[in-house]
Structures are given as C-alpha cells and as structure tokens.
Amino acid sequence: MTVQVATCSAAQLFSSHLLGDQVTGDARILSSDGTAIVGELTIPEYQRPYCWQDTQLSALLQDITAHSRHRPALSYYLGSLILHQAHGQLNIIDGQQRITTLALMGCLLQPHSEIQASLLQGLEYEHPISQQQIKHNLKWLKEKFSSQPEYWQGLVDFNKLQFTLVVTQSEDDAYRFFETQNTGGVRLGGPDIIKAHHLRAVDKLHQKPFAKQWESLGKLDDTVSALLKGRYWQRISMRELPSHQQKKQLRDCIVSEFAQQTGKGEDIAFGRTYRYTGLSGDVSHHQAQQGYDVRQPLNAGVNTIRYLSYFQGLYNDYWEKPDLPHLPGYHSLIVWLKGMEGCGYLEGLYKACLLLYISQFGENQLEQAAKKLFLVVYSRRVSNQKAVREKSIYAFTREYPVLDWIGLSYTPEQCFAYLDSFVLMVEGSNLDKNSVKKRFMDKVCEFFVLELKPGQYKDSFAQALTFKVAGDPL
C-alpha cells in the first residue's frame, strides 16, 4: 500500500488545483516523505451528490467563529480528505461536501481567486441535486455574508483552515480508508458507502447511467435493513444485528455484507424454479418471480446494484406506496399496519418477511400470506407482558425461525403449513386498563371483526384471530 500523508491549508488545496509545476514556495504541498502532492481535484462519477444544507453550513460557520474567538492564533482543523491519485488527477473519495462548501465561500469572499477558478473550472457538478444545492447554498451564504462582508472575509481565512490529506495510488486502498473512518458533516450511512464501492466496480463507460439509477432509488435504509434481517437471521448461519442505536456497528454490518463480502463476476439472479414434465417426457420450466433471492450470493458492481434496485422496487410497491387495486385485502391490511402504535421493531421483521415471500412467490396467495405473517410476527405484542424490545425480536426468530419457514419453502402451501403450526398465546396482564397492549388488541378486533367482550381477551382472542386468519378473507 502506497500512501502519502500531508497537512495543508485550504489556500494550498485550491492553489492551481494542486498542479505541481505551477505551484511554488509555500503553496506546494509536501507529504511526510518530502514528495510533492500534485494533480487536479476531480469528483468521480460514482460519488453521491453535493447535499450539504443550511444546517451544515451554519454549523461550520459557528465552529469557525467560536474557534477564532477562543484560539485566534491557531488554524481550524477541517478533518481529513481521502484522495486517489491517478492520471494527473486527485479523485475526491471523501471530502466533497467540505471542499465544495469552501469553494462556494471562496466565490463570495475571494472573487477572482484560485478558489473561484477551482469551482468554475476544475470541479464539475453534473447531477441535478448538486446543481440545485449549489444554487441554494450560494444564495444562503450570500445573504449571510452581505451584512458584514469584511468581517467574514477576515474570519474565513483559507490560510488558517487546515486539512490532513491521505493520498493513495490505489482506488481500493482509498476506499478502505473511507469505509473505516468516521466522516464529518452529514455522516454517511451504510448505503452511501456501498454505493461508491459498487459504482467503481462498474466499467467506466457505464458508470454514469448506473449512478443515475442508484440516485433514482431514493433512501435505501429501510430496504437494506429488511434485507439484512433476511440474510442474518437464518438457522444455518444465525447472526445478531447491532441495535439501531449502534450506528457505526450497523453501518459496518452493511458495508461487510453488501460490499466487502461481494465477489467478482456477472449479474446473476437466483430464484425458485419449478419444472413440469409431461407424459411424453417433454419438460418446461417456470419461475414465480423474475427477480433476485434475498439470501443469494452477490457480486460487486451491476449485480448488487440491480439486486438493491429490485428490492427497493418491491418495498415501494408492496409497503411504502402500495397501489394494488387487484389486491384490496392486502392493501387495506398494509395501510392499517403502518398506523399501528408501539410496533416498530415488529414492523421491521414483518417487512423482511414480506420481501422474502414476494421475492419467492410473487403475488401468489399474497393476501393470505400477509395475514398469516401478521399473526406470527405481531404475536410478540400480546405474548409479552409490556413493551416489545429490539433484542426480543432476534430472540423470537431464534425460537421461531419465521424467515426460514419462508426461505426454505418451495410453495406457498408449504410455507403456510409452517406458519399455521405457530400457536398464538396471550399474556394476561395489562388487559384491564388502557395499555398499549390493550389498544393493540382492540384495533385487531375491530379490523378483523372479532366480536369479543373485553373480559374474553385472554381466553378467546388467540382462538378467534387464528380462526379468522385461517379462514375468512379480509
């Protein structure tokens, strides 16, 4: 691994785009081994758009102001920049948000300077989101600076804003640094990090259309969370997921599962295939879904991008924004479930089950599957004494491997047999007051038209709901 490390000011960073032949004296940036760091700052196609907003701009200016007030003689440290050096360019792997923001400030506070030239000539922003955000931020900064231009010119001194540069000759090495360090500004989540990993694995000729496809997917967090549960919670290789509060550990799981552990190869999709053999011996093949399997192995690049795109589509169509007039019962159940109180952790498991079922069987008996999955997954709401805690969901899947019941079934009927073997139990406390459990059971009775008296909840609720799910359509 060849890595150069250097400390530089923002003024040095923008000076002639770090082109060594044109930079002399104090403007030159020398690494720890004495060699000059040269190249033109560029933003790779696969980088996320520029997305800093008013909150980040305001926080940066407040930090610079506070630092200047308390430590005026010292430089303000803006963190590390990770750059990949190749073909006379320094590709920005981590630091685009900070660099762009400083360039915008330079355009306003130091017109006709090298900083303005860097923004207008060296750094290119083709993504519409970047272009709109740059316009917005220029307007915001202009209004901020207009009342005291001389004050801000003295305060935002590019000679006193300092970076650490980490420059690698290998793109893979640059991303190893990127994936393991804490990022400043808008902290990157796992989906943001794996995006860069897979887009750089795509042939450069096709990077731009796949970058646009990724951006069109929107926020992937919920879909990736459901897929992680589907891949982690299986008897053959059971793994516990970090809590949603352990953001770094959870991010590391996403990077490991959907980036570091992906292989090299073609875009391959796995799925359930069944074969008909006629009396004459003729054979025909059929597949329930022309998509991907939740638990399949993945290859870097196009394969993982299309895998995530496929499941994001399923998530949007069957959970986030269901528009299914041909499945009115399923649609009404999902709309009702999304408004359920105190069931966030259960909802996470339920969405993982839905994605797994639909990816295998499509809409085949989907309404019935959704009801049976509800009875099993949401059982924790009535079998627990009080709250449903995050760790209890993992424990539940160890005792009742509902994801395996789906994943190991070849037909919906086989899956239903597993689900129907589950026995719903009601824990009797907190049913005589207006508790979360009691309100949940009231809503279930109303939705499924279970005609029970309050005093019958403990003895009759489970039997009535099981009968309703097994028989009557919604």
UniProtKB/TrEMBL annotation:
Cleaved signal peptide residues: none
Residues covered by the DUF7834 domain: 207-426
PANTHER family in the cross-refs: DUF262 DOMAIN-CONTAINING PROTEIN, SLL5132 PROTEIN
Taxonomic path: Bacteria, Pseudomonadati, Pseudomonadota, Gammaproteobacteria, Oceanospirillales
Protein name: Uncharacterized protein
Coiled coil: none
Top-rank taxon: Bacteria
InterPro entries: DUF7834, GmrSD_N
Start and end residues of each GmrSD restriction endonucleases N-terminal domain: 41-199
